[in-house]
Amino acid sequence: MGKKKIQSGNVLIAEPFMLDPHFKRAVVLLCEHAKEGSLGFILNKSLNMKVGELIADFPAFDANVYYGGPVQTDTIHYIHNVGDLLEDSLEVSKGVYWGGDFEKLKFLVDSNMIMPNNIRFFVGYSGWTQGQLKEEMKYGSWVMDEGDANYVIKNKIKTLWQEVMGNKGDAYSVIAQMPEEGTWN
After folding, report:
1. pLDDT of 171 strictly over 50
2. pTM (2 decimals)?
3. φ and ψ at 52, to 5 degrees?
């Protein structure tokens, strides 16, 4: 069985001993993978704030905001499952879209055509320069799997890392059971 190719729509699962605090037990949806580099969003790090707290003219909307990664933390991005309604959105994988016309997004939210369970907002993103992600994969920093729309929109963020790791089966399901803060005897 050959190695899976890195591509948009994959999820990157941080190996259990990753020390980088930005990516500890992170599940990252890869939205762009090209020769020049890669870009994705951490799916399981909530910022405990609502989108209206970040965007002053946004309609009243009970949607949480997540930490997408350490790059350009002054930017807001969104992933959703309503690409057929939102022009200029990019299909990342089946049923998962990135971005789209922001003014139209506000209109659709205000019209109750997009609900909080259709969209996820992120501050910042995770980025890799040319060849960097491939190198990190080679050294075992990440486990890769196919993306699933349920990981993006309908997940329980507190258990997402264990769920995605466990879904890989075999040794990964054992790794998924490892406690986050272990004690060594």
Report:
1. yes
2. 0.89
3. -65, -20
